[in-house]
């Protein structure tokens, strides 16, 4: 039988960080089981190829029909292969607010307040601006300024500034509110995924098994002792001598817990599964950023788009990147954005904007000719709570994902305020001069019309969390040291453990969780 001291399930953002750190120093042998490939091709390394991901790099899940979205199914892209979603996302580096982590602490997650986590953020970061009071410059995760941002992104900043919205040079600095260009997880013009940051070495004690589909976790006398998986059409098992770290993401981590007998007993019995630990919180508390996109078509080829001239420009940018790693193909497309406070009663920003230098419809799955720009507005702290459940007792079958979008009335009210604030920026002169044609015009003064438009078009902005939450209470799936309750030797290391969504993109804290999980495992194993 194959064996290692520690088996890590999932080579995504949290799993890469956990496995990389645990393999340092050579004390433990570590095996990583990843369902996808190595993600070393141009599709993942070239930032501008982000929209062109296929099934080899994207699980491309869908939700169950959403009553809050007028019965539509939502789209839930998730990264597949080493790096996970950090290999296909927009690379935006956002930590969230100190108050987000203080809330985690106050909910019973001792050791997860801002003063606890901030040193870890600095340790992991390699910011090209250099070290200062807010940033580190010696860590493995490269964080860079955009050197070739599209002038349309500058127009967005000018439009916001014309409305007295402050321009913020650092969303991870002294304050978050305002608009600015996002920093990105890139190194020298290439995408710098969590796998490239943590798994790039050739440590003899680290084994990476790609194209390995995990079926369940194995237990001996109440302790996680191995993993059953399939590779190359063959059923296999690997023994974990010391610990198993589960880092399959906010959808597949609860799926694998349930397939291993840890979850809501009634549901597991319905699936014909043995109940090892009755834990209703597994697959519960799903939270995600609900988001609305406005799209504008423009004449000419100033913005990115599909046309003869647009194709010529794109070809030139591609060739420049291949030769120099510079130019337009370093774009994350969502180059600019911001954080707005639309609720006077809340001192924190409650809406985030992402400004895109191209027209995007249906997550980029609808091919459009022509040029233009788009802008997202999302609810940063939604109150809606959903679930993840098993479709079948087979890991090959996607889980049933129900974010319950817009079931909490407060989320709709926040999103309406956010959409109105976004349109004020898009209609300001620095952007209005492009004479964009709104593809989905709506009377913003008409409450009913705006709500209908939102329910017809809103969807995720790709930040699911909470489905295996940590906490100090007995009902929590894992404790604040990320140990799964009810069994021994099993840890979690991804966004599923977040008790609440942070106010921003979730990749940076997911990497942080993997980093801290490794430290907890080291301390526990001695």
Q: What would your notes on this structure say?
A:
It is built from 13 helices and 25 strands. The protein has two domains: 1-63 and 77-117 and 192-288 and 388-406 and 464-526, FAD/NAD(P)-binding domain, CATH 3.50.50; 147-181 and 290-379 and 407-457, Cholesterol Oxidase, domain 2 (2-Layer Sandwich), CATH 3.30.410.40. Helix 1 (13-23) links the parallel strand 1 (2-9) and strand 2 (30-33). It has 526 residues and is α/β, with parallel strands linked by helices.
Quaternary state of this entry equals: single chain
CATH uppermost class of the largest domain: Alpha Beta
Q: Indicate the percent of residues in helices.
A: 25-40%
Q: What fraction strand? A: 15-25%
| Secondary-structure-derived class | alpha/beta
Q: How many DSSP H or I helices?
A: 13
Please name the CATH topology of the largest domain: FAD/NAD(P)-binding domain
Q: How many strands, what sense, and barrel or not for the largest sheet?
A: 8 strands, antiparallel
Number of self-contained structural domains? 2
Distance between the termini: 25 Å
Q: Any low-confidence stretches, pLDDT <50, length ≥5? A: none
Number of strands: 25
Q: Mean of the pLDDT scores?
A: 97
Rough shape? globular
Known CATH architecture of the largest domain = 3-Layer(bba) Sandwich
| Whole-angstrom Rg | 22 Å
């Amino acid at each position: 039988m194959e064996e290692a001291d520690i088996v890590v399930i999932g080579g995504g953002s949290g799993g890469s960080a956990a496995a990389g750190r645990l393999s340092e120093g050579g004390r433990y042998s570590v095996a990583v089981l990843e369902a996808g490939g190595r993600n070393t091709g141009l599709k993942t390394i070239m930032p501008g190829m982000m929209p062109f991901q296929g099934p080899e790099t994207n699980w491309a899940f869908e939700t169950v029909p959403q009553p809050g979205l007028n019965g539509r199914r939502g789209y839930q892209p998730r990264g597949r292969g080493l790096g996970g979603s950090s290999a296909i996302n927009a690379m935006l580096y956002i930590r969230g607010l100190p108050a987000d982590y203080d809330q985690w602490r106050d909910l019973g997650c001792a050791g997860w307040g801002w003063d606890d986590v901030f040193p870890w953020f600095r340790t992991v970061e390699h910011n090209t601006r250099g070290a200062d009071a807010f940033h580190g410059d010696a860590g493995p995760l490269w964080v860079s300024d955009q050197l070739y941002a599209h002038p349309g992104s500058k127009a967005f900043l000018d439009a916001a500034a014309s409305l007295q919205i402050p321009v913020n040079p650092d969303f991870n600095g002294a304050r978050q509110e305002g608009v600015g260009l996002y920093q990105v997880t890139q190194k020298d013009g290439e995408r710098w995924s969590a796998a490239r940051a943590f798994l790039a070495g050739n440590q003899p004690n680290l084994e990476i098994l790609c194209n390995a589909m995990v079926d369940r976790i194995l237990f001996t006398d109440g302790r996680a002792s191995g993993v059953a998986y399939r590779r190359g059409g063959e059923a296999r098992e690997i023994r974990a001598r010391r610990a198993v770290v589960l880092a399959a993401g906010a959808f597949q981590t609860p799926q694998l817990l349930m397939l291993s007998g840890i979850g809501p007993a009634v549901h597991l019995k319905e699936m014909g599964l043995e109940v090892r630990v009755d834990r209703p919180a597994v697959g519960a508390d799903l939270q995600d950023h609900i988001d609305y996109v406005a799209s504008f078509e423009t004449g000419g080829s100033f913005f990115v788009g599909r046309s003869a001239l647009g194709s010529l420009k794109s070809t030139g940018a591609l060739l420049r990147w291949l030769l120099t790693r510079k130019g337009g193909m370093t774009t994350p497309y969502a180059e600019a954005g911001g954080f707005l406070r639309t609720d006077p009663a809340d001192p924190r920003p409650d809406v985030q904007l992402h400004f895109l230098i191209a027209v995007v419809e249906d997550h980029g799955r609808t091919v459009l000719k022509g040029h233009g720009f788009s802008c997202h507005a999302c609810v940063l702290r939604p109150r809606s709570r959903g679930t993840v459940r098993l479709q079948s007792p087979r890991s090959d079958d996607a889980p049933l994902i129900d974010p319950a979008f817009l079931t909490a009335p407060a989320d709709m009210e926040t999103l309406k305020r956010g959409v109105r604030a976004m349109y004020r920026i898009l209609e300001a002169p620095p952007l209005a001069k492009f004479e964009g044609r709104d593809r989905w015009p709506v009377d913003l003064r008409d409450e009913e019309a705006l709500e209908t438009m939102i329910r017809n078009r809103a969807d995720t902005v790709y930040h699911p969390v909470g489905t295996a939450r940590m906490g100090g209470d007995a009902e929590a799936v894992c404790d604040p040291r990320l140990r799964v309750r009810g069994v021994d030797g099993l840890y979690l290391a991804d966004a599923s453990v977040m008790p609440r969504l942070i106010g921003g993109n979730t990749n940076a804290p997911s990497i942080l969780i993997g980093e801290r999980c490794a430290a907890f495992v080291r301390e526990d194993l001695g």
